[in-house]
Design brief:
Helix content: 40-55%
Structural class: alpha/beta
Low-confidence stretches: 1-30, 245-255, 634-644
Strand content: 5-15%
Number of strands: 14
Strand order of the largest sheet: 7-6-5-8-12-10-13
Distance between the termini: 24 Å
């Protein structure tokens, strides 16, 4: 593909004058750059466009030629090898990287990688840029003995070798993750001995009181009602608060350089989803030369690996990372394996079925630029695109609207602990690494990571450019997914409650209360909402027959009514307020709300059983190709001086 056939360059403000880098006209035949360009047989317009982009984006011309699909990596490496009169080669399995050096300065510097084989045979692999070819040629002329060691390598060949370096050690670190570096913060141990002792004493006390104290059930009812009350109160607080957290960007007179953005996509049994996924990610408004996409696959999932390798062909910066098979077979373990390989200053996580808004990376970057380093993560809203399919997807869409466009932005505005969603999390890589990445043994690693970030003093914000995805359309798919979520929230609550006093110090009183209402309240609500509905109905019937009870039971009855009516109304109103106008017809699905919560109660109870039997089993959610093209209307990202 020639530059003339590529998408216009103007969205990134690149057509603003000539570049001082490589001249568009052919150079003298003795010049190394001219020799390479002659071998590539490129049109002057293609070269000029690549130089212009390199100057504007802070990259090099070769990278821009690759990113725009003007040449492929093999042809470019061969042309530079012929220009330098060196062989084209790549590190073999026997070559061990022993040193690296950069020849030159800035983005156009050549990279030198020294290797040594087990037979002590040395090699010097050169990854030149077009701009660095004269400097490399001068060094080779000044030190002729280097020619026997030197060879030009394609970027892909060296990346493959680097990914294989320390493979076993990296796989083991990913497998253990927090269990090795911070065991108390890992869900590898479901409950500590101290927690088990406390649970045993509590159960024994309850059994003893059940026989000797008639008021036990009333006390348990009251305690459960209060926890449920806190969960309902959070929804109403988010509903009443009308503040809006808007993206901001300080207009700068200088020309900022786009940082490298790494996109992580864990894939398992998703061969049919890979091609549409890569197509969706290629619509993101971000320079392709400043972006990398890592498709993270299980090495023994051959169908997905093959599909990912096919999808990556012809797409600059798309790499396939193969995770060695080991337990636990979880998404966070795969992400931890890939994290040391990313080179971006910022990292975003997507799932196989995601279709992110094209401006999402731009908006996240603008928010990061305008904030200090304490802002470690930004959560984009997840929007369900197939909500109209049936009652189950409709209620799923309403649930997501209330959570991602209602509750989470409210928590972020008030700087309260925020449980992340499983996708569309944008991180400062430095902050993500500093907290240990993901817990490979937690099946809702997103919620746990949100809590750990807050405990370490970082902030999490939200943006409004959404990610579109589809909800499960059948109970057979929905139930295991919801069971995994509820089990992971149980794991997260147990992990962070191993030292309640320390958690209180880390989160502060408000944050500690919100943590309890979010996690314990959500679990109680999931398991007991229908119990409260039954309790209200029974108490009403009893009052009609025997009159009003005593003060304590009357207060408890009033609290139950609030929990049932207030919880239902709060959810419905928060979801309604969070919907786009074209989504409002989904509100008719609210008549099935109690059936939906009955399924949630069953999933919660089943999750409790699985927490004991198989705490780290990952219930994989199968995905199907997207058939809907609907996208919600959102406010556009704030303009960046050089991005539009």
């Amino acid at each position: 593909m020639r530059i003339a056939d590529a998408p216009p360059l103007d969205p990134f403000g690149l057509d603003q004058g000539p570049s001082p880098r490589i001249p568009a006209a052919p150079l003298d035949g003795t010049d190394a750059i001219a020799r390479a360009l002659r071998h590539l047989d490129l049109a002057p317009a293609d070269i000029a466009a690549a130089c212009l982009r390199a100057d504007r984006l802070g990259t090099d011309a070769a990278t821009e030629l690759l990113a725009q699909g003007v040449v492929d990596a093999g042809a470019l490496a061969e042309a530079m090898a012929r220009a330098l009169q060196l062989p084209l080669d790549g590190p073999g399995d026997d070559d061990v990287i022993v040193g690296e050096h950069r020849l030159g300065s800035g983005p156009s510097a050549a990279r030198l990688v020294a290797t040594c084989s087990r037979g002590f045979r040395r090699k010097l692999f050169i990854l030149p840029t077009l701009e660095s070819l004269p400097l490399v040629a001068d060094h080779l002329a000044a030190a002729p003995s280097l020619r026997s060691l030197a060879r030009v390598a394609a970027v892909g060949a060296l990346l493959t070798r680097e990914e294989a370096r320390d493979l076993g050690e990296r796989a083991e670190r990913a497998r253990l993750s927090l269990a090795a570096s911070d065991p108390e913060a890992s869900a590898r141990t479901v409950a500590t001995g101290h927690q088990g002792l406390c649970a045993g004493l509590l159960i024994s006390a309850l059994v003893a009181c059940a026989v000797t104290w008639p008021g036990l059930w009333v006390s348990l009812h009251a305690a459960t009602s209060l926890v449920f009350f806190g969960c309902v109160l959070l929804r109403w607080a988010a509903l009443i608060d009308r503040g809006v957290e808007r993206p901001s960007c300080s207009e700068a007179s200088e020309r900022p350089l786009f940082p490298v953005y790494s996109i992580l996509v864990p894939l398992r049994d998703e061969a049919h989803m890979v091609m549409p996924l890569v197509e969706a990610l290629n619509t993101l408004s971000w320079p392709r030369s400043r972006r990398e996409i890592l498709l993270v696959c299980e090495a023994d999932d051959r169908a997905t690996v093959a599909a990912a390798q096919r999808a990556s062909e012809g797409h600059h910066g798309v790499r396939v990372i193969q995770v060695p098979p080991s337990e636990p077979r979880t998404k966070p373990k795969a992400l931890n394996f890939a994290l040391p390989l990313v080179r971006g200053e910022f990292v975003v996580l997507y799932d196989a079925e995601d279709r992110p808004h094209p401006d999402q990376l731009l908006q996240a970057w603008q928010r990061f630029r305008s904030a200090d380093a304490g802002l470690a993560c930004l959560q984009a809203p997840l929007v369900i695109g197939n909500g109209a399919s049936n009652w189950l997807t409709g209620l799923f869409a309403l649930e997501y609207a209330a959570l991602f466009r209602g509750l989470l932005p409210w928590l972020a505005r008030h700087r309260l602990p925020l449980p992340l969603g499983g996708t569309s999390n944008h991180f400062r890589r430095e902050a993500l690494v500093s907290v240990g990445g993901w817990d490979s043994h937690n099946v809702t690693e997103d919620a746990d990571l949100g809590m750990r970030l807050h405990r370490r003093g970082y902030r999490t914000g939200t943006i409004d450019c959404p990610t579109l995805e589809d909800a499960p359309t059948s109970r057979r798919v929905w139930f295991p997914q919801r069971m995994r979520w509820m089990k992971g929230w149980m794991q997260t609550w147990l992990v962070h409650m191993r030292s309640p006093l320390r958690l209180l110090r880390d989160l502060g009183p408000e944050g500690f209360a919100v943590f309890q209402f979010l996690f314990l309240g959500m679990l109680v609500a999931g398991a007991a909402h229908l119990f409260f509905a039954f309790a209200v109905a029974w108490a009403t019937f009893d009052i009609l027959r025997h009159g009003a009870p005593g003060l304590i039971l009357s207060l408890l009855y009033a609290l139950d009514i609030w929990n049932v009516v207030g919880g239902t109304l709060g959810f419905a109103l928060l979801a309604w307020r969070s919907l786009e106008p074209q989504e409002r017809p989904l509100a008719r699905r609210l008549i099935w709300m109690h059936a939906y919560w009955l399924l949630t109660s069953c999933a919660t109870l089943r999750a409790l059983w699985q927490l004991v039997r198989a705490p780290h089993r990952w219930e994989k959610t199968p995905h199907t190709p997207v058939v809907t093209d609907w996208r919600p209307a959102t406010s556009p990202a704030a303009p960046v001086a050089t991005a539009r």
